[in-house]
């Protein structure tokens, strides 16, 4: 971004590729300042840096189940996570395989470059685990959703990092894991079932004062799907933190192709709440929805690693307010978080005098 725009001020005013995540006010300018200080200190010779840990790296030839891989290598899942912090929670809870081509880091004792020579065929898989998604509607319960999809309530909770009461909220998108031969559907109305909380507690980190909502919200479905002459098209509603460039990456197409089909000027980008048409030439609609869900889940996980919701406050919409202004000028919070607690919120239209529930954040 700095190479393209030339300065922090220009990045702030003009950069719209969507690769920056939420940060509190002044974070990026403070970060650039910290980098400059670090460069000066590094050249002064006054700082003694710890030597990097010795590791070996190897590329996975195909998709791999984490537990099976750990058993084959003779290491624990905790050790694999320690050396590979970029692996996401769905890999560790078994919802997803480790991706094909992932460059895995291992302790230096694994010096052989032929780690997987002679590995059993069952260690690797040709396809990623498929995910289905369900958007919560009024009257739904977690147990009813699990029963409808013929999976256990426990597996639904684990796949979505729900809290120990399996609480869900209208508008959330729940990942529905694949049914296994060992799973049995749990029956009964279970609003308050208590299971062990799957979230790891970080030493020294206080528990959140307000119940955080772990499931991804927003309309992530592809609708009005039409198949004609080997071309599949569909409609999506643009969500916060999405851009034409990001959608093009997911579709494996050029940004220009999205602009053409939607008559979008080269100097404009898409905005949350806007509906646009997409062509699915190189990925399926189901794969697109999975990639999209994982992207938004990662954004949310990263956010809650840095911030806690400690309460709520009411805000009455004023004439001239926009969702963007309320989030970034008045309350300093990401747009998707406001939407999470206000399911009927329309990004591109606010009714004056309407009331919003605004989360109060505390940096961890």
What does this structure look like?
The chain is an alpha+beta fold. The chain folds into five domains: about 1-45, no CATH class; about 55-125, no CATH class; about 130-200, Roll (Membrane-bound Lytic Murein Transglycosylase D, Chain A); about 225-305, Membrane-bound Lytic Murein Transglycosylase D, Chain A (Roll), CATH 3.10.350; about 305-364, Membrane-bound Lytic Murein Transglycosylase D, Chain A, CATH 3.10.350.10. It is about 30% helix and about 15% strand. It is built from 13 helices and twelve strands. The protein has helices at about 1-5, 10-15, 25-45, 65-75, 75-85, 90, 140-150, 155-160, 245-250, 255-260, 285-305, 325-330, 335-340, and strands at about 55-60, 65, 105, 125, 130-135, 170-175, 215, 225-230, 230-235, 275-280, 305-315, 355-364. The strands form five sheets. Strands 5-6-7 form a three-stranded antiparallel sheet. The longest helix is centred in the C-terminal third of the chain and has 20 residues, at about 285-305. It is globular. The two termini are about 30 Å apart.
- Counted up, domains total 5
Instruction: Please give the CATH class of the largest domain.
Output: Alpha Beta
CATH architecture of the largest domain: Roll
Quick check: average pLDDT?
Answer: 82
CATH superfamily (homologous) name of the largest domain? LysM domain
Oligomer: single chain
Strand ordering within the main sheet: 5-6-7
Distance between the termini: 28 Å
Number of helices: 13
Q: Please estimate the helix content.
A: 25-40%
Decide which structural class fits the backbone. Answer: alpha+beta
CATH names the topology of the largest domain as Membrane-bound Lytic Murein Transglycosylase D, Chain A
Sheet with the most strands, sense and barrel status: 3 strands, antiparallel
Q: What string gives the helices and strands in order?
A: HHHEEHHHEEEHHEEEEHHEHEHHE
Gyration radius over CA = 23 Å
Which residues sit in consecutive blocks of at least 5 with pLDDT less than 50?
183-209
SS strand fraction: 15-25%
């Amino acid at each position: 971004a700095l190479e393209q725009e030339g300065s922090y001020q220009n990045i702030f005013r003009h950069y719209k590729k969507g690769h920056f995540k939420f940060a509190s006010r002044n974070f990026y300018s403070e970060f650039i300042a910290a980098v400059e200080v670090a460069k000066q200190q590094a050249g002064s010779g006054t700082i003694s840096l710890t030597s990097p840990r010795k590791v070996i790296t190897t590329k996975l030839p195909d998709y791999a189940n984490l537990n099976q891989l750990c058993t084959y290598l003779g290491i624990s899942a905790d050790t694999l996570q320690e050396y590979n912090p970029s692996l996401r929670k769905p890999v560790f809870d078994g919802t997803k395989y480790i991706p094909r081509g992932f460059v895995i880091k291992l302790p230096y004792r694994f010096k052989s470059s032929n780690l997987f020579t002679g590995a059993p065929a069952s260690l690797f898989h040709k396809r990623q685990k498929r995910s289905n998604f369900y958007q919560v509607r009024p009257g739904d319960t977690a147990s009813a959703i699990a029963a409808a999809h013929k999976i256990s309530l426990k597996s639904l909770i684990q796949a979505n990092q729900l809290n120990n009461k399996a609480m869900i909220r209208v508008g959330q998108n729940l990942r529905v894991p694949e049914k296994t031969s060992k799973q049995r559907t749990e029956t009964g109305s279970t609003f308050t079932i208590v299971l062990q909380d799957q979230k790891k507690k970080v030493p020294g980190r206080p528990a959140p004062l307000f119940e955080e909502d772990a499931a991804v919200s927003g309309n992530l479905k592809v609708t009005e799907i039409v198949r004609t002459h080997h071309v599949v098209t569909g409609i999506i509603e643009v969500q916060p933190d999405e851009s034409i460039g990001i959608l093009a990456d997911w579709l494996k197409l050029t940004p220009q192709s999205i602009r053409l089909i939607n008559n979008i000027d080269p100097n404009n980008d898409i905005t949350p709440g806007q509906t646009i048409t997409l062509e699915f030439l190189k990925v399926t609609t189901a794969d697109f929805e999975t990639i999209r869900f994982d992207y938004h889940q990662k954004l949310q996980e990263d956010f809650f690693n840095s911030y806690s919701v400690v309460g709520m406050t009411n805000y009455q919409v004023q004439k001239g307010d926009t969702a963007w202004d309320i989030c970034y000028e008045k309350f300093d919070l990401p747009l998707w978080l406001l939407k999470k607690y206000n399911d009927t919120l329309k990004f591109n239209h606010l009714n004056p005098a309407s009331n919003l529930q605004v989360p109060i954040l505390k940096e961890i």
